[in-house]
Specification:
By secondary structure, this protein is an alpha+beta fold. It has helices at about 15-25, 45-65, 85, 90-95, 165-170, 175-180, 225-240, 290-300, 325-335, 370-385, 395-405, 420, 445-455, and strands at about 30, 45, 70-75, 95-100, 105-110, 140, 145-150, 160, 185-195, 210-220, 250-255, 265-275, 275-290, 305, 310-315, 315-325, 335-340, 345-350, 360-365, 390, 410-415, 425-430, 435-440. A hairpin with a 6-residue loop joins β4 (about 95-100) and β5. Bound molecules: adenosine-5'-triphosphate. Adenosine-5'-triphosphate binds next to β10, β13, β16 and α9.
Length: about 450
């Protein structure tokens, strides 16, 4: 992309609009219940979106669980005993101060309106309808969704949709530690849905009311937590870079003491420079023993660790890494989006890392005759299962290439008139546009090596 056509962050102008439209057109992301006019800030992932999401979560799981001998997985329920959320502090403190404009009835988080931070929010002007002096006094708004368990809708049957996956890990600390025979330091990793009744969701899938988190709680000996906190900050930043995200659009931001959550001793965010500014997409938190201690007090059950060699018993401290899967997907998409002029037209290309791309290779017969479709179909069939393959025989070859560029497919394989004679196909590289002749029998190995070259663990 040429510098004059970009914004400060180096992104295309109107990138968010372009992404929303591409995501819908190509089947990455749709608005939930669209035919009914949608529902507030919930999104559905289409055929390509789910592949990209699966690839990101598999890479996270691989790098977190498979590649660490002291991190194990868990999949806890979304619904939990409501006491969990009392103990964790969410019932009492998971709130945002909110004001409502009496004129247009729009609600705003106090900390998101710069002028409203001023002495008296009720005197401010509404950024939506422009009315001044019509804001209500700020009141605390709990972000947890409530529902009822069982046949009776009454207060005693209230349960919550979890607002984070972490508590499922804390309450299972003993179960996992003992059954997996883990010794401190060790971690528990989990991927799953979380729900927050956000007052001001927005920026497409950046802030939604239903989303997925990939969290890991690392249990350490008290006194070693600061060292582990530093280690995990570095590891997580390296991981973000390993997804192929531009280094200059990544940074670590330390929380000020006024920003720290009630359970945190220290926290840093990994931020990405979105078109709408620098924003968090992963948090690394030095959570002390707050959660385990709190659950011990509320449940009356011991959540301690016995260090046998040292003959010592303690409640471990926790360093948490918490990343939104859907927010990470937005980072990956925003960073991969590119436009360039090729042969007097604009080529839109998603420069996704090959191991993350929803489709790894597309297979085309150059034309639908002379035995080309048969060879191409057989090749596609042979490659399926090893790679995610898309077969396309419709339209000019140029249009087929462009469709795959927009989808981020790193390799397009074309069977042409020569193939029947020399058993060779043309492999076209999405980024360099180079075309290489490869023997039919070696296409699988070629793809494997090309993907492996940018992701040694793929
Ligand atoms: P924010 O300040 O953006 O509301 P947070 O500090 O409350 O986020 P955490 O509770 O630390 O976020 O959650 C960890 C991660 O979960 C975030 O870094 C983000 O990637 C993701 N996340 C949190 N809230 C949302 C949301 N409403 N929609 C999508 N992802 C979210």
């Amino acid at each position: 992309m040429t510098p004059e056509s970009t914004t400060d962050s180096g992104h295309a102008p109107d990138l968010m609009d372009k992404l929303v439209s591409l995501c819908k057109r190509r089947g990455f992301i749709f608005q939930s219940s669209e035919i009914y006019g949608g529902v507030g800030s919930v999104y559905d992932y289409g055929p390509l979106g789910i592949e990209l999401k699966n690839n990101i979560q598999q890479v996270w799981w691989r790098d977190m669980v498979f590649r660490h001998n002291n991190i194990v997985g868990l999949d806890a329920g979304i619904l939990m005993n409501p006491e969990v959320w009392v103990a964790s502090g969410h019932v009492g403190a998971f709130t945002d101060p909110l004001v409502e404009c009496r004129n247009c009835h729009r609600r705003f988080r106090v900390d998101e309106l710069p002028e409203i931070e001023a002495e008296n929010p009720t005197d401010q002007q509404c950024p939506v309808c422009g009315t001044t002096g019509e804001f209500t006094d700020p009141r605390q708004f709990n972000l947890m969704f409530k529902t009822f368990m069982g046949p009776v809708e009454e207060e005693s049957a209230t349960v919550y949709l979890r607002p984070e996956t972490a508590q499922g890990i804390f309450v299972n600390f003993k179960n996992v530690q003992e059954s997996a025979r883990q010794k401190v330091p060790f971690g528990i990793a989990q991927i799953g849905k979380a729900f927050r009744n956000e007052i001001t969701p927005g920026n497409f899938i950046f802030r939604t009311r239903e989303f997925e988190q990939m969290e890991m709680q690392f249990f350490v000996k008290p006194g070693t937590e600061d060292e582990w906190f530093e280690t995990w900050k570095e590891r997580r930043l390296d991981w973000a870079r390993s997804l192929g995200i531009s280094n200059e659009r990544l940074r670590l931001q330390k929380h000020g003491s006024d920003e720290l959550a009630h359970y945190c001793k220290d926290a840093s965010d990994i931020e990405y420079q979105f078109p709408f500014g620098w924003q968090e997409f992963e948090g690394i938190h030095n959570r002390t023993d707050y959660d385990l201690r709190s659950h011990q007090e509320h449940s009356g059950k011991k959540l301690e660790y016995f260090d046998q060699p040292a003959n010592e018993r303690y409640t471990p401290y926790v360093v948490e890494t918490s990343i939104g899967l859907s927010r990470a997907l937005l980072v990956v998409l925003a960073d991969a989006y590119d436009e360039e002029e090729v042969e007097n037209s604009t080529r839109v290309v998603l420069r996704l890392k090959p191991s993350l791309a929803p489709i790894q290779a597309a297979v085309f017969p150059l034309v639908k005759k002379d035995g080309m479709p048969e060879i191409a179909e057989k090749l596609a069939e042979d490659l399926r299962g090893k790679f995610n393959i898309f077969y396309d025989a419709a339209g000019s070859i140029g249009r087929r290439y462009r469709r795959q560029d927009e989808t981020g497919t790193p390799f397009c394989i074309t069977v042409d008139g020569q193939t029947g004679e020399d058993q060779m196909v043309t492999v076209r590289n999405r980024d360099t546009l180079d075309q290489t002749r490869v023997p039919l029998s070696q296409v699988s190995q070629y793809l494997h090596e090309a993907i492996h070259a940018t992701d040694p663990h793929a």
